[in-house]
Design goal:
The protein is mainly beta and 192 residues long. The protein is built from two helices and ten strands. Helix content is 9%, strand content 54%. Strands 1, 2, 3, 4, 5, 6, 7, 8, 9 and 10 form a ten-stranded mixed sheet that branches. The chain is elongated and about 50 Å long.
Length: 192
């Protein structure tokens, strides 16, 4: 579930309109997918890594397709016993090794330079189940360089995953995901 954040991290946007076709590629080495899970005593922080991603969209219609795949097995909170429990009992990452976001529609417009805010609507697959989801994305483009950030909540318990709470330790039923990424933006029209 936490890996869901990682899905957006290595995104590749490829608009389908040939007249305005553009490619945005995020660098996994310069992408962080962080999760935060609060409880009464302390807050747990951790990370996931992006496995692969490709998004295609038509800027005229907003129609989108592709996948953003996060490696569920990569989830790491810095505590071995907690991570073993997360992978074995909550994510069941041996069985559900990937968290996948499949975009269907882009709302808003992506400016060729400067700041943009878009919403990416699609299906979020966590623990083998698809859920309708919208990712708010802030993008900053300068020349061919790009920075992307997103912040969202995943209602993992509502989506059918176990709550790791115990009699003494009570944790939130939602996990916060923050993604920060850098990459490149190239207009296909500008390519030789």
């Amino acid at each position: 579930m936490l890996a869901l954040c990682a899905m957006l991290a290595g995104t590749v946007f490829v608009p389908a309109s040939h007249a305005q076709e553009s490619v945005v590629q995020l660098d996994p080495a310069h992408t962080t997918v962080e999760f935060t899970l609060g409880d009464v005593l302390h807050t747990v922080h951790g990370t996931f890594t992006l496995k692969s991603s490709a998004i295609r969209f038509d800027p005229a219609t907003g129609k989108a397709s592709g996948e953003i795949i996060v490696d569920a097995i990569s989830g790491d909170s810095g505590n071995g016993s907690r991570d073993r429990k997360m992978h074995r009992d909550i994510l069941e990452s041996a069985k559900f090794a990937e968290i996948i976001f499949r975009p269907k529609q882009i709302k808003g417009s992506l400016a060729p330079q400067g700041s943009s805010r878009i919403d990416v609507l699609g299906e979020f697959q966590l623990h083998g189940e698809d859920h309708k989801f919208s990712l708010p994305v802030d993008i900053q483009i300068s020349g061919q360089k790009l920075e992307l950030t997103t912040h969202f909540l995943v209602p993992y318990v509502q989506w059918g995953l176990k709550n790791p709470s115990t009699f003494i330790l009570r944790v939130s039923d939602k996990v916060t995901i923050d993604i920060h990424a850098a990459g490149t933006f190239v207009s296909e029209a500008a390519r030789p």
